[in-house]
Design goal:
Length: 483
């Protein structure tokens, strides 16, 4: 790919799968967004929307996997965008890289803030005198970010081991939660309950309300580009990285559907639980009792912490690669690698500091925090869509060992169509009446990011950044290898 090796290949096929599976993290995604789905479509959209969106995400994953096989680098999306563009390669690469960066930072911030919120919920259940406070959530998030940065500072082997543990934590945790919701309650909803439809969004159009409910699954299925970003540290990356993407999505789709069904059929008092501050936690309490609910809540918190760690790992590699090509302020600083651990330590701490900056507005305004992190999904899926769109336009695309053959363009076309539809949904109003607290700030947040990137591009970046850098011929690059 034109770069000297600085990172060691310690990720096996399972490790590569593990990082995307952990970032998607069905337990974290479903528990943090289930309440929104209860008001936007109810069980019908939660269950059947999960199935439909999972299929569409598989198309996105397959199109990305084909590109990952052809360009297995840490730069992943922005690198492949620069290589696939017919013209203006620097601009395509620039915008893709910054969308990817901001989306990943938002994902790390949102996941860890959600973990802090659930930690406070657990503490309040254990000690009723404690009252959750947004400022405490910011402080807890800061502590979590520091601990995750420390874990990422050490060898990639440690990260791989933690990700292996996280996979088993998720799978065993899923079995425990589903088994508890199936066996312990003395009653469940009838089989036809999955067709129950609810529209509490405030909009009178039920179709619109139900379409908003599709966001629950879309929110969950982000971050599977993690396997792509870990390519330079993965053995046989041209095959194992694309397989990691596809396996992570497929396993998450199947296990997530099981968890979704378990929660839906365990609902007791719909109005009460939908109106709770944490609806899935209230479902656990009503169905299983406070004691069992607290134990299961620990599983959920653990899943969120693992998810945040994997998010930071992926973000670190994107920072490292983007800096290697000179696209970030202080690039020489951020793409340096520790000679002892062979990890980009400085990029790790940048990946910890940026989410903390996003979380800080939550100290005084939950709306401001939501406005900033809402760009997470929009930024990521737009970053996914750019190289797929460019591959669609390219007639002489050279696939890697893992490819879709003659179906490549068809799959890419479906993927781009779904990305456009889902991003429009993310930027539409999600509650009525529209007020300062219910307004969807995602378009504004995205607009600010694109405005800054555009001004920066025309002011200076276009003169020095021409896309991914090549350090020379393969034999010259091999002679520069630092490991």
């Amino acid at each position: 790919m034109g770069y000297p090796r600085k990172l060691t290949r310690r990720f096996r096929a399972f490790d590569n799968f593990a990082i995307s599976f952990t970032i998607i993290n069905i337990i974290s995604g479903i528990f943090s967004s289930f309440g929104f789905g209860m008001g936007a479509g109810g069980p019908r959209v939660l269950v059947f929307g999960w199935i439909g969106v999972s299929v569409m995400v598989l198309f996105v994953g397959a199109a990305m996997a084909e590109i990952a096989s052809a360009y297995p680098t840490s730069g992943a999306l922005y690198f492949s965008a620069g290589k696939l563009a017919k013209r203006h390669r620097g601009a395509w690469s620039w915008y893709t890289g910054w969308l990817n960066f901001v989306g990943q930072v938002g994902g790390t911030a949102a996941t860890n803030y959600a973990a802090a919120t659930f930690i406070q919920a657990f503490v309040a259940m254990q000690w009723p005198s404690y009252h959750p406070d947004p400022r405490h959530a910011v402080g807890i998030t800061a502590v979590i970010l520091v601990l995750q940065a420390l874990a990422n500072t050490y060898t990639v082997q440690l990260v791989a081991i933690v990700n292996r543990i996280s996979v088993w934590w998720l799978l065993i945790g899923l079995v425990v939660i589903v088994a508890a919701l199936t066996v312990i309650p003395d009653q469940h909803q009838s089989a036809s309950y999955v067709t129950h439809f609810v529209n509490n969004t405030g909009f009178t159009n039920g179709i619109y309300g139900g379409m908003l409910g599709l966001l629950v699954t879309s929110w969950t299925f982000t971050g599977f580009d993690g396997s792509f970003h870990m390519s330079e540290e993965t053995v046989k990356a041209t095959v194992n990285a694309p397989r990691g993407i596809m396996r992570a999505i497929a396993c998450s789709a199947f296990t997530g559907l099981i968890l979704m069904l378990a929660l839906v059929y365990a609902i007791r008092d719909y109005a009460k639980e939908a109106g709770a501050s944490a609806p899935p936690v209230q479902i656990l309490v009503d169905a299983l009792g406070t004691g069992t609910a607290k134990l299961l809540l620990l599983i959920v918190i653990g899943a969120m912490l693992f998810c945040g760690l994997a998010n930071m790992t992926s973000n670190t590699r994107q920072i490292f690669a983007f800096s290697r090509d000179g696209a970030m302020p202080g690039s020489r600083w951020w793409h340096s690698v520790s000679p002892r651990t062979r990890t980009p330590v400085k990029a790790v701490w940048l990946a910890a500091a940026c989410p903390l900056v996003l979380v800080l507005p939550g100290w005084w305004s939950h709306t401001a925090f939501t406005a900033v992190v809402s760009v997470n999904v929009v930024g990521l899926f737009l970053a996914y869509g750019v190289p797929i769109f460019l591959r669609l336009r390219l007639d002489d695309f050279q696939p890697g060992p893992w490819n879709l053959g003659r179906y490549g363009k068809l799959v890419a076309g479906i993927a781009v169509t779904w990305i456009l539809i889902s991003n429009v949904l993310f930027m539409l109003p999600q509650a009525s009446p529209i007020t300062a607290t219910s307004f969807n700030y995602a378009p504004i947040a995205l607009g600010v990011v694109l405005l800054i990137a555009t001004v920066w591009w025309f002011a200076s970046a276009r003169h020095r950044f021409q896309g991914p850098v090549s350090y020379g011929r393969p034999d010259e690059v091999a002679a520069m290898d630092l490991i």
